[in-house]
Hints:
This protein has helices spanning 35-38, 67-89, 129-142, 144-151, and strands at 25-28, 40-43, 49-51, 98-107, 114-123. With 161 residues, the protein is an alpha+beta fold.
Amino acid sequence: MKDSPLSTEADYDGVEFKALYSTRVTVTGGPLAHGRATGRARTADRGFSLELRLPEEMGGDNPGPNPEQLFAAGYAACFHGALSLLARRHLLDPEELSVEATVAFGRDPADGGYQLRADLVVSWPGVDQKAAAPLLAEATALCPYAKMTRQGIPASIIFAS
């Protein structure tokens, strides 16, 4: 099968990290000066600008969107994309494929701080579990969100006044 324009075949060319895409989002605090509760998130390219809200379960009064929803959407979309690419390579039709992400925010029992948990449910009518299992494993290795949930990511925090 011919590679689609969304192929990863040309992405491997060395032993060092090579950014294929980079984005920048700025969050400000809004009325409560609290980015998580009443903030605004804006992309540098003006792709989106949205108000963030604290979920009702955490004391907020507005149902969305919140950082967990945005992370869940990114994780599900990325995993779906990885699995779709692999499906095409194995001559399987990804049209009915769907990925549902559940992200939970809660207390970390190790240190009393906060922690995220993430779970994916893949639904793929017409594909049995035996055929899907190796593709799920391969997609887990390919998807950077899945990698991040297992291994973390290189990150830095810099103060710029």
